[in-house]
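Lab notebook: predicted structure, single chain.

Context: the supervisor wants predicted structures on file for every construct in the current expression panel, including those that have not yet been purified. This is the next one on the list. No modifications to the sequence; it matches the entry in the shared construct table.
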Amino acid sequence: MKKFRSRSARMNRMHFRVLVSRYLRQIFTNAGLLLPLLLEAPVMLFILTIACRTNAFTDKDVSQANITIFILLMMSAMMGILNSYREICKERDVLSREVFGGLDISAYALSKFCVLALVGIVQCSVLLFGTALYSPFNFSAPAPDFLLCLAALILTNLSVTAIGLFISALLKKSESAILPVLLIIIMQVVFSDSVLVLEGAAGYLKYITPSAWGIAVFGNACGLNGWLPGGIFHRAMFDYSPLISLAALAFLTVLFVFLTIFVLKRRYRGKE
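Prediction complete. Output recorded below exactly as produced.
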């Protein structure tokens, strides 16, 4: 095992490059890791084609369009949590040895996130392009709106990926992650401000729920609030500027990456 000794910023960047290269090599040389990552997006896309109508957006069927957006964002969030929740706790023994050898913890956590982010970007691109071919979104400004929705889908994935890494940093064994992961998935469903509309204090939880912000971008780009007369269908978050929603997702992503680094540094305090 190579020892990491230098604590300079230059060496920390070297740690990051070495770790990114190592994780990519692990993925591409291990069929057990690569195959699920390759199949996740196509399988979820197949499920979406079964569950959703092809003409939901062109016919302005607000119920079916809302369901399509909901399923799309849930799939993005689920891929993020499934890809990340075991990544740190499964390497706990290896990480402990390498930290004793001088490994920079920030470089370790950021390398994990960046590799998973690359995976998430590819998966979300496949998911959105496939959905657009099956059920055209009928945007008023096709190119800008499509890019905004792609950014929302990717940032939803990245923010939940960061939450998954945070959970993984807190736990010692991947078997212990079942309950936290389940709670995160349930939160994305219940507080997405899509299928269920919650009032009072419970309604404020949508503002810390990545899927709600991602759905808000799609709802705004598709103009769902204006499809039915008299405000029969209305979601307050759909009126927000997409840039606000994207900024919220970016903030959640950065926050949980920082918290992951903070937890790991506290756990290995004095061992670096």
